[in-house]
Amino acid sequence: MILFDPFDPGKGNKQLKQLYLTHFVPPDISIAIVSITETDNCRLISLFISIVDEVDNHFGDYNIYRGLDAIVAQLHRTNSFLQLHKPWEVKKQPEQSHWLNCILSVTIETLRVCGILLQPITPTLCDKLLSRISVPVTERMWHHSKETFSSTQTKSLGENTGQLLPRLKAS
Predict the structure, then answer these.
(1) Domain boundaries, position 66
(2) Which residues contact 59 (CB under 8 A, 6 or more apart)?
């Protein structure tokens, strides 16, 4: 599964359709971090937690490209995490539902934070992304990106309006 491939935005749709969800249950963050740490993904979480400050520093120093690079690197790490744990296969094992929720919560939380951080650069695309993952308009300010893993309640996903980025056609 690919969250985003800049050369082929449609890549990974087959796995996404297998995983189609209308809601997810975020796990208790302490349990999620223990689960992820046990699977050698501790770096993903530590980098995720520090990304907001890193991007804030880069943007504050007018090094926009460095901030964007940090965001894209985090998205690539999350892609690797998703591909490694194959939630579309975990979903087939009901006894693994907690692990599935953990994988999806980390992924969706990464999308939420990166979507908030990217709003000044790509406002329309980020609005579409944040609406799809049900982030209220009132919770899309920069300071909300620092409130990571703050909910443990079941969340409904927003309306599926199709691909965020359509596949580019060769001319």
Answers:
(1) 27-155
(2) 67, 120
* Residue 75: CATH number of its domain: 1.10.730.10
Q: Which one is predicted more confidently, 47 or 120? A: 120
SS3 111: helix
Asked if 44 and 106 touch (Cβ cutoff 8 Å), the reply is yes
Q: Has residue 115 been placed in a domain? A: yes
On whether residue 92 sits in a domain, the answer given is: yes
Mean pLDDT of 130-150: 86
Count of the separate structural domains present in the chain: 1
**Nearest to residue 103, comparing CAs of 118, 91, 115?**
91
Query: What pTM value is reported for the model?
Result: 0.76
User: Could you report the per-residue pLDDT of 45-68, keeping only the tens digit for each?
Assistant: 666 778 899 999 999 999 999 999
Hey, how many other C-beta atoms are within 10 angstroms of the C-beta on 58? 18
Residue 40 placed within a domain? yes
Q: State how far the Cα of 147 lies from the Cα of 136, in Å rounded to an integer.
A: 14
Cα–Cα distance, 136 to 131 (Å, whole number): 7
Residue 100 lies in a domain: yes
pLDDT greater than 50 at residue 1: no
